[in-house]
């Protein structure tokens, strides 16, 4: 079984998990949790990634929890934390988990050195001491224990707010740590919003992040039926909060591309992701392009912004038979296709 490099480092330290109630969280990307089933007293997974939760749900001896907020239904006494690419997301998740689990809970942290995992020593200091116990393949492994009462965790305190203005449209975006567009309007999204053709009927904002596209479209045209979708529970929660805060109606759903999406749309509008953790991944967008015609009404359109270096036009032409370029900057292109 092939594991990520951080998991290979954890595999050198299995004694930490013997007879423990282990909770895995953070940037989970493989099935290493299954290796702990035979040595740990119990194994839980908490993930904010819908695709990962779906893939792990097929293992009956692992309790998988998906969502924006951890619910401590079963008491864990050991957290195995995979360091995420965003430091703010690490702080958010650790605050959440240790408020739920409390003092005396141990923690093992693993991550690639380029991800900033060294920050764990300073970040964990208010709770206890964390020290490095292993280093291999440009990864580090830490162990520590929660020795102080954690501060109360309240999800609403973690939303970042910032204003955006597009033409006559003014909104406040609300976003949780680690979510795309968490602190400012993305340049590619701005170009997309300024280039969009006239839309009507039902619109899917795919890879919605904090809900910028869907919220702007809904405020500009209240008659639109807006659905926003993302693989991240934190993004979905942010999109819902952005709608609520701006008194807008719409739906936000967690999904792996179209796995949890029903019905057909008049338009799919997207600034799709091309990163998975620290690495580049095009799988979700390639699937989106290939499957979009099946989720559009006849005459429906897909409009996408993408970095110009990404070779999406041939894939769009294969799926739709044509690919128009509506606008381009030195970094981004706006593509449109009609079913």
What is the gist of this entry?
The chain is of the alpha/beta class and 339 residues long. It has 10 helices and 18 strands.
Number of helices: 10
User: Helices and strands, in N-to-C order?
Assistant: HEHEHEEHEHEEEEHEHEHEEEEHEHEE
Strand order of the largest sheet: 3-2-1-4-5-7-6
- What does the largest sheet look like? 7 strands, mixed
Report strand %: 25-35%
Average pLDDT taken over every residue? 95
What structural class do helix, strand and pairing data support?
alpha/beta
Residue ranges: pLDDT <50 for 5 or more in a row? 275-280
Distance between the termini: 41 Å
**Rg calc:** 21 Å
Principal-axis shape: elongated
Percent helix: 25-40%
Question: How many β-strand stretches?
Answer: 18
Description:
This protein is of the alpha/beta class. It has helices at residues 5-10, 33-36, 50-56, 87-101, 120-124, 187-195, 212-220, 233-245, 283-291, 313-320; strands at 21-26, 42-47, 63-66, 78-82, 106-112, 130-136, 139-145, 160-166, 169-175, 202-206, 225-230, 251-254, 265-270, 275-276, 279-280, 296-307, 324-328, 332-338. Strand 8 and strand 9 form a beta hairpin. Helix 9 (283-291) packs parallel to helix 10. 45% of the residues are buried.
Explain the layout of strands and helices.
Layout: H1 5-10, E1 21-26, H2 33-36, E2 42-47, H3 50-56, E3 63-66, E4 78-82, H4 87-101, E5 106-112, H5 120-124, E6 130-136, E7 139-145, E8 160-166, E9 169-175, H6 187-195, E10 202-206, H7 212-220, E11 225-230, H8 233-245, E12 251-254, E13 265-270, E14 275-276, E15 279-280, H9 283-291, E16 296-307, H10 313-320, E17 324-328, E18 332-338
Parallel strand pairs: 1-2, 1-4, 2-3, 4-5, 10-11, 10-13, 11-12, 13-16
Antiparallel strand pairs: 5-7, 6-7, 8-9, 14-15, 16-18, 17-18
Helix pairs in contact: 9-10
